[in-house]
Structure to design on (149 residues):
């Protein structure tokens, strides 16, 4: 009986205004072997720039992991923009303590999941895999390289 090939890695864009958080997420997710952090950004505006660049290369990630509280463009607006411009890319939001109303707003804006920043890291990984497995995916329905703008 032939062995099944493992599924391709879940490709992720990490967005957080704290470099240490981005670095920790990259290190943790990268060590898993089946999650590949393809890019990072420090806020929602920069995330849209990264997605436009990746779209031009037809290399959009499966999931954007997005901090809810960021300067310039917060997680709620960034979620809405990502879902509008890159509908094949799922969004998972990370929320800090006391952000339940903003977390709800992000879910309403199109985030597939919202997790607590102080939650179990294993839950983040399970969520990324589930969201990537149950989302249409970025490759087949990639928008124009300008992100629909």
């Amino acid at each position: 009986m032939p062995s099944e090939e493992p599924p391709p890695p879940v490709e992720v864009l990490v967005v957080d205004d704290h470099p240490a958080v981005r670095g920790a997420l990259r290190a943790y997710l990268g060590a898993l072997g089946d999650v590949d952090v393809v890019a990072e950004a420090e806020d929602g505006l920069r995330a849209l720039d990264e997605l436009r660049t990746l779209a031009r290369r037809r290399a959009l990630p499966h999931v954007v992991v997005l901090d809810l509280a960021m300067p310039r463009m917060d997680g709620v607006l960034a979620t809405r923009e990502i879902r509008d411009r890159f509908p094949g890319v799922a969004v998972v939001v990370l929320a800090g303590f006391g952000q339940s109303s903003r977390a709800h707003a992000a879910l309403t804006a199109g985030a597939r999941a919202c997790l607590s920043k102080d939650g179990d890291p294993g839950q983040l990984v399970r969520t990324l895999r589930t969201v990537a497995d149950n989302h249409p995916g970025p490759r087949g329905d990639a928008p124009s390289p300008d992100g629909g703008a």
Observations:
- The chain has five helices and five strands.
- The two ends are 49 Å apart (CA to CA).
- The longest helix spans residues 19-31.
